[in-house]
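Quick one:
INPUT:
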């Protein structure tokens, strides 16, 4: 299963994705709005969990590569969060791209294809996205792909320690009818 856009291929993960994914997750610029960068073992474990979710749900977070040149740039896809959240059960759209590929519209382009897949192929009624309050870049992507902030849905992320500056999260939603 893969999705294609004008410039991107969203596909299942390959062993050749490990090295660039480890580098992406070790970059403090990319991981600015996460509690910490990830080690090699944590990145490898994340790929294993992502692939397991494809088996469990029939969809997941796709490795994302440029069509030309054919290189891995990160991920874009759908996820069922493992941690219960105030609005669970839910399906979220998520993305993480290598820093060198920011500002080129790739996140929006891939996310639009993923939203279409989620609504048209999976018949999802709603897709959510969330991030820490200060992650303005991701919030702009959410808005540009037609998601709306649910201010009543803002929450303290249960996996972030109390008092941590990333604890407060904002919630965005999009329904199939929108």
């Amino acid at each position: 299963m893969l999705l294609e856009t004008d410039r991107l291929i969203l596909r299942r993960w390959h062993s050749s994705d490990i090295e660039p994914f480890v580098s992406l997750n070790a970059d403090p610029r990319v991981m600015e709005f996460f509690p910490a960068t990830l080690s090699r073992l944590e990145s490898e474990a994340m790929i294993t969990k992502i692939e397991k979710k494809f088996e469990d749900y029939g969809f997941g977070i796709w490795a994302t590569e440029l069509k030309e040149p054919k290189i891995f740039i990160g991920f874009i896809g759908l996820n069922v969060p493992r941690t219960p959240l105030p609005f669970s059960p839910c399906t979220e759209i998520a993305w993480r791209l290598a820093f060198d590929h920011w500002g080129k519209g790739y996140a929006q382009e891939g996310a639009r294809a993923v939203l279409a897949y989620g609504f048209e192929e999976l018949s999802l009624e709603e897709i959510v996205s969330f991030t820490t309050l200060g992650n303005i870049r991701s919030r702009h992507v959410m808005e540009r792909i037609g998601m709306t902030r649910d201010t009543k849905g803002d929450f303290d992320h249960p996996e972030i320690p109390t008092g941590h500056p990333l604890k407060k999260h904002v919630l965005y939603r999009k329904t199939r009818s929108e």
